[in-house]
Amino acid sequence: MSDQAERLINIFWESFLPLLRAGVAFTIPLTLISFFLGLGLALLTAIVRLSEWKLLKALARFYVWVIRGTPLIVQLFIIFYGLPSLGITIDGFPAAVIGFTLSVGAYGSEIIRAAILSIAKGQWEAAYSMGMTRSQALRRIILPQAARVSVPPLSNSFISLIKDTSLAFVITVPEMFAISQQITAKYYEPLLLYCEVGLIYLIFSSVLSSFQRRLEKHFDRYNAK
Predict the structure, then answer these.
(1) Cβ pair 76, 94 in contact under 8 A
(2) DSSP at 52
(3) What is the pTM of this model?
(4) C-alpha triplet 10, 13, 14: angle, nearest 5°
(5) Residue 158 and residue 103: Cα distance in Å, rounded?
(6) Whose CA is closest to 11, among 190, 198, 169?
(7) Is the CA virtual torsion 41, 44, 46, 52 positive or negative?
(8) Tens digits of residue pLDDT in 122-136
(9) What is the CATH number of the domain that holds 135?
């Protein structure tokens, strides 16, 4: 084995633990917190857009339009670097959570709204015939069925989010990609280290994809009944 090959192997193993530690300490928590907050926001937005409240519908539609129509990195810059000019200063991690939550909320709301609209109108009518209000029908009849339809696209959004968190390095969050840049500056081996951090993202995404398949099978079992 040449000296260069041995050096690269040593760099790989020396950097693996710091990268993995950054993933566990920042990337995964950032993903989980943002996704579940965003999921709640998505559900609320979808329900508002299907409601009869014209003003709230317009606000929800405007929010989705803005978030879907602008780059995520621009949104992060506005939250972290732009808001201080208005006297609003937010630390890196909370700013990243806000940015990713807003993104998940906008895209997820379209998924949930489409899932709700896919439920046959007869389901609503049957619920009303049993004396349920609109909110009761939505909660007891429509949303459980819509959840099954939403699982695959929402799971894909979750997997995409764990990769999108790499953008948090631009607002000083020390997640995996930020750490890989620091290590690269030390060893001057960008190809090796960027491939290594890509490998760790791939491992995380593969594990999540496995959970996604199990979740889909779980819901398919109920659909079969």
Answers:
(1) no
(2) S
(3) 0.87
(4) 80
(5) 11
(6) 190
(7) negative
(8) 888 888 888 887 788
(9) 1.10.3720.10
